[in-house]
Task: structure prediction
Amino acid sequence: MTVIGIIGAGEVGGQIARAAIANGYDVVIANSRGPETLQHLIEELGPSARAATAAGAAAAGDFAVVAVPLKVVNDMPEAELAGKIVLDTNNYMVWRDGHIPVIDSGEKTVHELRQEHLPRSKVVKAFTHIQAPRITTAGLPAGAPGRLALSASSDFPEAVELVTRLYDQFGFDTVDNSPLSESWRSGPGQPAWLAHEHQTRAELIANLARARRIVSR
Ligand SMILES: NC(=O)c1ccc[n+]([C@@H]2O[C@H](COP(=O)([O-])OP(=O)(O)OC[C@H]3O[C@@H](n4cnc5c(N)ncnc54)[C@H](OP(=O)(O)O)[C@@H]3O)[C@@H](O)[C@H]2O)c1
Result:
């Protein structure tokens, strides 16, 4: 049985947990307030889920998802995530996260910063340009006309391969938009992000190519 450690039990973490359990995974899920505050979610998710601390979820997972905003100073359990593939769903939102100068200047992408925070993990950007509720409703079988595509970006090919398998199980095609330094192409405001509701593989490839970097110095 493959266990996914999910840090973040909000909209995205909860939906990835539902989709994962529907596809035969076990999940260990955490929020910032402690496992006892996740009782209702665990009751809904059923016996394939349990709640833990963030460190506990990271330690339990064969791989992990961090569905939490990025902080300037790392607040993820680096040691427990070491050696693991870590799916990062974060979108940088200034209204929520404040300004992070190295991102605003274009020196680094959000996900390069997450990779720096987790130097012993293999970070892969995933699930960032789909609205959370659609993770469990918008999937289609492989080969179906109009099947949506999602991007994955990583400095590690094996991390993109894992996400490709997971996307396929959840009902989505994959476009590899690696390495992490290119991950801005699917960020908020870019064509690939804006077209999230109906974007086939060919359309996503075209939209990633049309992206123009937004830099403020
Ligand atoms: N919502 C969407 O449709 C969507 C789509 C794609 C990507 N995203 C991105 O995905 C990320 C998560 O979004 P969301 O909408 O799921 O957010 P959300 O509903 O606000 O949930 C965030 C979750 O992260 C937890 N959390 C925050 N800091 C933590 C920490 N240090 N340790 C453990 N848990 C922590 C929160 O726990 P508490 O509640 O206990 O504080 C909460 O469970 C964001 O970066 C967002 O930009 C969102």
